[in-house]
Amino acid sequence: MGIVIKDALTVLFENGIDRIAKHSIYIEGEDIVGIDRKPDGFSEDKVIDGKDRLVIPGLINAHTHTYMSMMRNCADDLSFMDWLFKTVNPIEDRLEGDDAYWGSLLGQIEMIKSGTTCFNDQQMHIKKTTRAVKESGMRAAICRGLVGNEYDRSDRRLTEALAEIEDGKDCDRLSFFFGPHAPYTCGPEYLRMCADIAKEKNIGIHIHLSESVTESENMMKDHNCTPIEYARDAGVFEVPTIAAHCVQVTPSDIEILKKYNVSVVTNPASNMKLGNGFAPIPEIMAAGVNVCLGTDGAASNNGQNIFREMAFLSLIHKGTHKTPQCISAKETFAIATRNGAKALGLEKKTGTIEVGKKADLAILRLDVPSMMPNNNLLAALCYSANGSETDTVIINGKVVMENREIKTIDEEKVYYEIRKICSRLGLDKKEY
Ligand code: NI
Prior knowledge:
five-stranded parallel β-sheet; 18 strands; 15 helices; alpha/beta
């Protein structure tokens, strides 16, 4: 089926710069097959009028836990360790059946409705999530969160994770990482084993690193090193690594991240909400590290909206560094799109609108107050848009949302199931 988006303002990445001008985009099957030039033999089965529209590459949420969307507003105003060990983990222990499937769909609805086309998910419910992704039409990189202490290749979770990776190979929108959870839940031998197996399997690692002061202090007390050094010494960085958070990093940690080409995912809302502080993103960027953007799970964010993260990212660093030049709108937009694709090893498929790449894009309304006047649209994307401008979303060449109606997911059914799950888990009766 051929789709044409006709005469729409479009963000194209040309010669190292994002430029916005009117273009027509031709999509056939999964791919972008032409920009302004209709390919020979192209049949226009669907024409999307570009009047008052802005086409952007789909946003990439480079760190989340989608199933946690059912835990939105359930664990608030708590210290990080109380949030994780006393509140979130006990809820997770009580999940059953298809809970994680419905939770992931809820997260994916929110992402699609705010222009995200691809996400990087770490959790314990791979099969439920891959099923949800196959149905929603989103692109996703998925890993099972792994915890342990021994170098034991017969470890149950590990064996299951490897089987799950094999299982998901039938969907080309899915890719997989290895997911040792964090230095404070994975002993050095266990991390070494994860790194060895990831190397053998030729897959990357997605891990939480240096998220809180407590984590760094305990690491120094127990192992006399930083969490970044701990991961390096266990061999984690010998495979392509995505490190979520990196809030408590030292200048020498930043050098290590650069040396090993680790991609850093910053999660500003989650870090602020849990009282963990601000990752030194301008300094990490200045060192030449690939920085991308994530929401983290809705239990700590409490949303899955990358537009909100773009605003937080740029504003907190301008504010804390007392210089408005430290992160520009252009840099923020790159962080939310192509840097995420690079981190996920998907830069040949997604992250920019280019002929030959997969058609992963969001079409935003420009005839709404947050985008008016249509003067500096890259600034609008970072500073004034809130995600609700997203009108139509195309992923892998398929229209998954049109005029804000999601075509692939029965939204009402998801809300019905989420209410039922929350009622069973007692998450609907929070008292204040
Ligand atoms: Ni996380």
